[in-house]
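Sample entry follows:

:::
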Amino acid sequence: MELAVTLGWFWYHLGQLDAGRRTLERVLSLLPETSTSLVRARALTAAARLACYLNDFEPARAMADQAIDLAVEHGNDRDLAYALYVRALAGQGVGDPAAVGFAHDAVSHMRMTTDEWGLGLTLFYLGTVAIFVGTPDVISPALAESEVIFRRLGDTWGVGGALFYRGVVSRRDGAPAHARGLVEESVQMFRSTADRWRLMVALGTLAELTEEMGEESEALHVEVAALRRQLGLAAG
């Protein structure tokens, strides 16, 4: 189970979302549901995260809730923060306004640890969840602090995420040219990290911005479709 948990992010970056999730769930089945081991909480969080990226939000919510309960029982702020941000992500997927509260709690608990990368990640998800559940005052401060942390750590993947969602906000604010520049920069960063899920999302947004500016976007759509197939996602 510890090995499977360690591989959770590897499966994500490899684009093997379904294979990773199925492996984690298979490993989880080896322990009884009554097990209170902390590594079980971590496996539940990892499986829930992959389920979110597969748009399977209800199972993700259930697994994240179990992980939260276990982390609380152990008094572990770091594991609790990770479980809470995944719970926020699952809530965002179904438009639950409570999702931003889970994201806020994730940041609060992560601030109580020494995990700087984890703080950058939970701040990023606070900002992005706030975009989708309509709490605009939270978005810019969370994304800005996340970007500062990831730049300090030299984490291109994290910086790219913050840039992309700054672009999403600029687009909503009626500044498509500025948005396009931010999204294009994020695309280049995601290409260098080989994150196919984030690359797919960013390319899809770039295609829409390109069309809005009256330019050809067919090549972008072709690449998005290819990435969706690689990730095992339905056409959309």
